Amino acid sequence: MADTTTQGVGAQPQVRDVAEDAGSGGGDGIRTFPFPVDLSLGGVGMQAVRMGPERTWHLDAPLERVHRIDFHVVMLFDEGPVLHMIDFAEYEVAAGDLLWIRPGQVHRFSKTSGYRGTVLTMQPGFLPRATVEATGLYRYDLPPLLRPDAAQLAGLRAALTQLEREYEDGTTLPPSLHTAVLRHSLTAFLLRLAHLAASSAEAERGRTDTTFTLFRDAVERDFATNHSVSAYADALGYSRRTLVRAVRAATGATPKGFIDKRVVLEAKRLLAHTELPISRVGVAVGFPDAANFSKFFHQHTDLTPASFRAELR
């Protein structure tokens, strides 16, 4: 992967909205890159390689521009800090941190950061369904930035080093057996990673009020059809005042702000990922009237939907 591939940072993750510069530069539009089978040793459905300036998804791919991938990426960083944009939020990553990017997510590498560490890429379908479910490969509700403690990091590094060794050794075993060993080694690493992701999410949930957790889950389920704070409060059996206190304590935002942020993210994804007419995007996020959708989107991004999409083209 390119030397636009990751280093790290210190204490708390810094996340900020970067939609305003997501599509800078020329081009025909946001690109979706398939898994680079041609760059994979032996054509297997995964890679485990060192990050550096010679690595890329495709030889002509400007990774510093916003793009989408249809495969899994896990980056383990040896250096930091690095800033990396995922789904229009920028994450500050430190040495020893991991980024887990899933198929369909929009992201962009930093132009100024030298990425150092190991990158694992995996083609959907490379692992059996049972392993996919056990490792939570499609848990889009989990945060992409993971910060293991020393023991967790040691285990992840050992598993990834073994996987990298197996990946590079394409001559000791017959191809079919080599692929089987890769799948087992990959599964071992992903099980450790999935445990880290789940425990991190559980710890985060433990730090938040149950009221907020229920509200967050309800918004994730219904944001496309329900933008009303009162409706959520009624459905959850709380007073509006109780909901406001819980959401503000957990996020610093109001319930309405939390709902709007989720709606805006989905609208950005649809504008960036699809060719849906803007009016259809509005309908998909709960705005039957195109003018109301444009007004809402501009209020939260300082861009019209058309301008936002144009910046990605």
How would you describe the overall organization of this protein?
With 313 residues, this protein is of the alpha+beta class. 43% of the residues lie in helices and 14% in strands. It is built from 10 helices and 11 strands. The protein has helices at residues 129-135, 150-168, 175-206, 210-222, 229-236, 240-251, 255-273, 278-284, 290-301, 305-311, and strands at 15-17, 31-33, 46-50, 67-69, 72-77, 82-86, 89-93, 98-101, 106-108, 117-122, 145-146. The protein has a 6-stranded mixed sheet with strand order 1-7-6-9-4-2, with helices on one face. The protein has a 5-stranded antiparallel sheet with strand order 3-10-5-8-11, with helices on one face. Helix 2 (150-168) packs antiparallel against helix 3 (175-206) and helix 7 crosses helix 10. The longest helix has 32 residues, at 175-206.
Strand sequence of the main sheet, in spatial order? 1-7-6-9-4-2
**pLDDT averaged residue by residue:** 84
Low-confidence stretches: 1-28
- Per DSSP, what share of the residues sits in E-state strands of 2 or more residues? 5-15%
Structural class call reads alpha+beta
Helix content: 40-55%
The Rg value, from CA coordinates, equals: 21 Å
Count of helices? 10
The end-to-end span amounts to 23 Å
Could you give the order of the helices and strands?
A: EEEEEEEEEEHEHHHHHHHHH
Taken from the alpha-carbon principal axes, the silhouette is globular
Strands, total number = 11
Largest sheet: 6 strands, mixed
